[in-house]
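This follows on from our talk about sequence and fold. I would like you to pick a protein and set down its sequence and fold. Go ahead and set the record down below:
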Amino acid sequence: GHPAAGCQLAYCLDHGIGGERDTAAATRAWLEMSEGPPAQLALAWRCETGRGTAKDPVRALAWYLKAAGTGHPVADAAVEHLASELNTRARSAAEKMAQGELEVEVTNDDPGPRPLVTRTLSWAPRAFVVRGFLDPMECAHLISAAMPHLRPSKVLQRGSGEIVSDEGRTSGEMSFMNPLRDVVVHHIEERLSSLAMLPLAHGEPLVMLHYAPGDEYQTHVDYFDPSIPGRQKGLEAGGQRLMTILTYLNQPTAGGETVFPEVDLTVPPRAGTALMFFNTLPNGEIDRLSRHAGAPVRSGEKWLATRWFRELPVDQRPPPKEPQTAAPGGYSASFRI
């Protein structure tokens, strides 16, 4: 079968999209696609958590190792995390297992929805982290889908509001606009809306960002300052950006932290963790303490998914003359200070 279609089917079975949840059928579907990193990471996570198969950390590590062998950025951190919890004998067994044909015993085990752990980082600005928001397969899927469509990130020019290149922002990006918004992307967008407690239509397109070694995004803001003429274009497309949710999809070897310089807050990137912060105060005024930066990636690479939420519904049509399958989003840029 077609790998992308198989992954979509497995994901639907796993999450009860279009029918009842069926973890056993989902495991079988993932096994059919087990040559690709997203399926390998999905099977590893299933073995690690006991979803649709028996809980087996050694076999989970073997699947993570197999995915890491493809060079996928999500796998390395998963290997490091799980290997640190196993003894030398177990790690050796997993390494040997990963060299052969891996199997998974299909069961009806279903531990239920993953518990989300939320921690308050700051009340000024209001900032929170949600651990385990995305699982390894979801992280891998977003990265794999984004890779062919990346292009240089841009910013909104202070005076004119035009989208331009800036030496302070050196990442690559793309937006999930139709027809790239598949079942997985749509389901993640729905969960982000639930986390934000705002309607789905108030979210801008999900933006993927990739930082290579040395890439950074210097101090900037996500809100539209109404006192600056060039910001009116952004405000006209859905009102103020109330909230930002960044979801880290992998963990770089070094660097890549999100830094809030006004309050001396630094958030390290951890795969699957969502960072949620408000760009406005409770009274609706812009919160200047929400200024932040993406620190330089010193080693490895960093992937994250960003979604901004507005006070009004957002027009998600691509900008004029932009190719729909590679559009970065009409207002995906932020604003350099």
